[in-house]
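REQUEST
  id: r-88c1
  op: predict_structure
  target: Ubiquitin thioesterase OTU
  payload:
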Amino acid sequence: MKLRKVISNAIASDPAYFNEGILGKKNYDYQKYIEQPNTWGGSVELNIFSDYFKTEIMAYDVTRKRGNCFGEAKYSQRVYLLYDGIHYDVLVWNLVPSSPQSDFDVTVFNAKDSAIEREFIKVMEKEHASGKYVDEYNYTLQCLQCGQKFVGNSAAVAHAKATQHDQFGQASN
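RESPONSE
  id: r-88c1
  status: 200
  body:
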């Protein structure tokens, strides 16, 4: 809950920047929304976390095969995330590849380390080629509460608003 409060406080502190156009809803409403344990964030939250942790956050979008760096050129360290259309996962580099132990995993890198960036771009490209992503505009979701199916996020969001249903999963074909 602490990190949700960090986001909420940052949004409250700058209503001119964090306006309805940026947030998709009124500033106060977004603050309450993001404080809920079952809501998800995105680029707004990554931008805030970049400043909060004083770390660049490079998020690779597997669907679109592109990266977006939050806090670019502002900080000396960087973390990498992989976005599959639904979730963000942290990318790690294991210093001892033959060891399954996570004790050797590195998640924070020098922001100017182009070699590690190239390696993580390869990971993104491999995930894309393997189809390990969800196209949020064209995939089928199913409401887990009533069973109704929707193509893309916008139809599911409209259903959630109309019914107060908040549990969705990707529908099997």
